[in-house]
Amino acid sequence: MGATASKAAAAAAITAALVVTAGCGGGGGGGKAAPAKGKAPATRSARPVVDAPTLTQAQLENAEVGAAELPGWTTEAVIGKGGQAPVVHDPATMPQATPGACQPLYAMSDGLLGGREPFTGVAAEWLRADAPDLGIHLVLLNLRSYATAAGAERVVTDLRTSLAACRQEFDSPREPRMKFGAARQFADPAAGDDALAYRITKTPRAADLGDPANPMLNPAHIVVVRCGTTVASFGETIPADVATPEVPTAVVTAQAAKLAKVAGRG
To answer: Fewer CB within 10 Å, N- or C-terminus of the chain?
Structure first.
């Protein structure tokens, strides 16, 4: 499959299946460093949870990065800014993964709500790059605002706990024929008040593989950053025959800095 066709297929698949969430703050690091074999990934100390104003829907949309912050990149609205109308869902209504310890990991990885905590606003966009100096990237950015910084922090801590507890494959409750492999956590990115990064692969269950020698793999690299009352997630997913997905550090850094500025912290 060619790179262009693969990218188009990936975009169609993850528009409905992947939601990413990020926060604000400074610093770099897209979570590239993998843990040494047999060792836990490096975890940095989160900044104290200090309450901050909740961003409005308009502020969330204005906080999304674009060509001004990322020269050479293009954007396409997904939620807000001419995309789908923002809808605040009740996390209690989302499909539940089994075992329960995998639920926060599933929620973030499959893009339904991004966590169990109710949110107050949401904005999302595609970020695309295809140039020799940038590489080929298709990143879905999702910003969510919460009523309190403690609520936003629970999204990150729940996900961190789930990554440690959910060490096995689990079925997708939304797509019965699909399963998620065990996630691989990376060193925490140096961005925002708290952050983490991991890679996870979605694939058909063994009974539904079709051609076992050429399974349909959907690897995704996900970075989650909290800044105050906002959580931002970045997700890049591309077919395994094209490249290993990697959210660029520059994207995470630029978005964290813009969120901090909009929140009055930059």
So the answer is: N
**What burial letters (b/e) apply to 132-159, b meaning 16+ CB within 10 Å?**
eeeebbbbbbbbbbbebbebbbbbbbbb
Report yes or no on 182 lying in a domain.
yes
Residue 45 maps to a domain: no
Taking the CA atoms of 128, 134, 137 and 141 in sequence, report the sign of the dihedral they define.
Answer: negative
Residue 217: count other Cβ atoms within 10 Å of its Cβ.
13
Distance CA 49, CA 71 (A): 33
Tell me the pLDDT tens digit for each residue of 3-56.
444 444 444 444 444 333 333 455 544 444 444 344 456 565 556 667 788 999
Band of residue 115 on the pLDDT scale cut at 50, 70, 90: confident
Q: How confident is the model at residue 263 (pLDDT cuts 50, 70, 90)?
A: confident
Q: How far apart are CA 92 and CA 199, in angstroms?
A: 25
Identify the three-state secondary structure at position 77.
strand
Q: What is the pTM of this model?
A: 0.82
How many structural domains does the chain have? 1
* Structural domain span for residue 18: 3-30+50-84+91-262
Length, in residues, of the chain: 266
As a whole number of angstroms, the distance between CA 140 and CA 115 comes to 17
